[in-house]
Amino acid sequence: MTYSIAILGAGAIGCYIGAQWAAPVAARGGTLTLIGRERVLAPLRAQPLRAEGVTAGPMALTEDPGALARADLIAVSVKAQALDTVMEQIARHARPGVPVLSLLNGIEPVRRLRAGLADRPVLAGMVPFNVVWTGPSELHRSGPGEVAAERHPLTTWLTEAGAPLELHDDLGPIQHGKLLLNLVGAVNALSGLSLYEMLQRRGYRRVYAAAVAEALAVYRAAGIAFEKVGPTSPRLAVSVLRAPDWLFRQLVLKRQNLDPKSMTSLASDLAAGRQTEVDTINGEICRIGAACGHPTPVNAALVRLVHGAEGQAEAPAYTADALLHEIAG
Ligand SMILES: NC(=O)C1=CN([C@@H]2O[C@H](COP(=O)(O)OP(=O)(O)OC[C@H]3O[C@@H](n4cnc5c(N)ncnc54)[C@H](OP(=O)(O)O)[C@@H]3O)[C@@H](O)[C@H]2O)C=CC1
Ligand SMILES: CC(C)(CO)C(=O)C(=O)O
């Protein structure tokens, strides 16, 4: 059997995953189509996409959501803010029963896709690393790990074709593990610094550690299982993040291969004056806390501050002390 894969949302993640999957899909006689905006696709028509120095295999590039009609699997890689439109496009163009794989951060997007596309399988996926554009057709990845997805005949076909993908029967613990890693996004966004610069400073790391410690307490109270995603186990991370700068640099930063200009995707949105995914990230911790009666003042403060900064002409530049003050209430 051979299949046609569509990636809906040609941004940092969609293009990186497209670059990883294109050659294995083509080698099995399949096709891969990236659906996105012309401003992103035009440079890729002029110069093939390169991710980590490797040139991507053949892929079709289009702005037309009508291309979904040919897909046997649709991987969604837009921001959560675009999900309503994407669900309408899938409902209008995709064939009945074609599965949708969510590559978005957070747990809420999968819930929304399952509610909005109830007539087709929606598979959870998780991208553990950071990807940034280093040129119009060049991507840089930082951080370890493999993309994870729920097991399904189409995701099994992808792995058999050689696409780098780990399959699981239940992605819940992995999604909850990734959510802990994502809590850095709001701190990074509010600092106004690159992720690399922000992580060099203990004050910001203490804010991030407080958000993770609170989330761990909420998971415990709610009985939620999680797995380690990223370089360090979340419980150890809380202590490691609080270490002095010189020790953190030796233990973590030196091994991370972080691009000095890298930003979390939440920080890129805020810096570009766009709405962010903070409600699906820190907001999810607040929702779980509210449901089990566990207070979440740290994550609630981060949600409030990020919302306050959205749509402002200038990106915020909170000092670490100011953020520590805000989360202390
Ligand atoms: N970047 C990263 O390192 C990581 C990101 N993630 C998650 O992956 C998801 C995608 O993030 P990322 O790649 O950074 O986001 P990007 O903003 O880089 O990419 C999304 C792209 O999809 C486009 N788009 C939106 N709606 C549509 C549509 N209906 N049809 C076609 N294209 C559309 C957007 O255009 P426009 O801007 O015009 O809306 C944008 O170009 C997010 O949930 C993020 O949290 C997960 C792990 C790491
Ligand atoms: C950096 C990372 C891996 C964790 O927040 C990420 O998922 C993002 O940029 O959104």
UniProtKB/TrEMBL annotation:
Annotated EC: 1.1.1.169
Pathway: Cofactor biosynthesis; (R)-pantothenate biosynthesis; (R)-pantoate from 3-methyl-2-oxobutanoate: step 2/2
Known catalytic reactions: (R)-pantoate + NADP(+) = 2-dehydropantoate + NADPH + H(+)
Single annotated GO MF: NADP binding
Signal peptide bounds: none
Gene Ontology, cellular component aspect: cytoplasm
Biological process terms in GO annotation: pantothenate biosynthetic process
Record keywords: NADP, Oxidoreductase, Pantothenate biosynthesis
Annotated Ketopantoate reductase C-terminal domain residues: 174-309
Ranges for domain Ketopantoate reductase N-terminal: 5-148
Assigned protein family: Belongs to the ketopantoate reductase family.
PANTHER family reported in the protein's UniProt record: 2-DEHYDROPANTOATE 2-REDUCTASE, 2-DEHYDROPANTOATE 2-REDUCTASE-RELATED
Stated name of the protein: 2-dehydropantoate 2-reductase
Species annotation: Seohaeicola zhoushanensis
